[in-house]
Design brief:
Layout: E1 12-17, H1 21-36, E2 42-50, E3 56-63, H2 70-83, E4 91-94, H3 97-104, E5 111-112
Parallel strand pairs: 3-4
Antiparallel strand pairs: 1-2, 2-3, 2-5
Helix pairs in contact: 1-2
């Protein structure tokens, strides 16, 4: 996986849970990592659309952690690179309570503390 890049999006639409064999493996590998970062209380792997674009992306959405937790993001990126090809991309975000409510309407968390 390439370097982590920070970006800001104005509007995020949460579409649903991202599932499949590699995603299941990725989630299972993430659970011990998320447990070790005590601030993360919940995590979802969801399909998202940004700023009314037609392009759908996949995002790891985490609640409870502080924003810009670079160490956690780097660890997640390393796990991601073990499971997915180099050309695959994962968006990662720390979500607000409001965003968590929106996600909960379309997906179940794969990790809950």
């Amino acid at each position: 996986m390439s370097d982590i890049q920070q970006t800001s999006r104005r509007e995020i639409t949460f579409l649903g849970e991202q599932n499949g064999p590699p995603e299941s493996e990725f989630k299972e590998l993430l659970i011990p990592l998320l447990r070790s970062h005590r601030r993360v209380t919940c995590a979802y792997l969801v399909r998202v659309r940004y700023d009314q674009s037609s392009i759908v992306s996949v995002a790891l959405c985490m609640s409870g952690s502080k924003r810009n937790d670079g160490a956690l993001l780097q660890c997640v990126a390393e796990v991601f690179s073990q499971v997915f090809k180099l050309n695959e991309v994962l968006d990662m975000m720390f979500i607000t309570k409001d965003q968590e409510g929106q996600i909960a309407e379309v997906a179940k968390p794969f990790y809950v503390k």
